[in-house]
Write a structure and sequence with these properties.
single chain; 57 residues; mainly alpha; 2 helices; 88% helix; 0% strand
Length: 57
């Protein structure tokens, strides 16, 4: 088996490589989305704390 045969996947290369690509995309979204939501939540909490501190001052 040479490298070209490996990448061709017996004629199913499009399906195999696209499924790998979709799986990678899903994994990246599952990592990035919660991090972005966490940052938004922390910023919202900080803004709320600043507003309350200004009110109480």
């Amino acid at each position: 088996m040479n490298l070209e045969e490996f990448f061709n996947m017996g004629g199913y290369a499009f399906y195999v490589w696209s499924s790998y690509g979709i799986a990678l995309l899903v994994l990246l979204v599952n990592i990035i989305a919660p991090l972005r939501q966490r940052n938004k939540l922390l910023n919202k909490i900080a803004d709320t704390a600043r507003r309350q501190a200004r009110r109480n001052a």
